[in-house]
Amino acid sequence: MKESVMNKVWILFALxxxxxxxxxxxxxxxxxxxxxxxxxxxxxETLKNDTATDSSVAPDKKNTRKTIKTLSVMEGNLxxxxxxxxxxxxxxxxxxxxxxxxxxxxxxxxVFSHELKSANILWDLPLIDSFGDEHDETVLVVTxxxxxxxxxxxxxxxxxxxxxxxxxxxxxxxxxGGQTMANIGFTPY
Length: 189
Description:
Layout lengths: L1 H27 L6 H16 L15 E9 L2 E8 L8 H19 L6 E11 L5 E12 H6 L10 H4 L2 E4 L18
Parallel strand pairs: 2-3
Antiparallel strand pairs: 1-2, 3-4, 4-5
């Protein structure tokens, strides 16, 4: 009988030890993130660091100036769509374009530190049509491939040169000076 109690104590002790060791190992195990989650985190940190007015990024992927609308990584190709709520009251057209180019350059530098074949970034801004309605419209699209990214000295690249080194670059007429926010994208009758 005394042996039976002693066996039960050892079994209980072994069970407790097994549970404690198992819990310690599961808490110490690093989470494995998908490529998309890793890039999303890197991009959020890059945008957070590039934001002059607010350096906090909430978990919902927003800060006061930029929102990641979509982010996908498929077969080594990144597609990123960002909306910024900057307006001409905050910045001039030139400084707004310069900020978007700087953010894009920093994002490309960060994401091409991972294995990627290409990256495509679209930027939206809130524009006001002739009727006074505000809506988000794509104002800049830039694509960079792995081949070009490998040839870039990121430490010395001026963001002003991004349009020259990109595989594809398009900017909305809004930045070209002749139009105002009130008539962008709309043809008067």
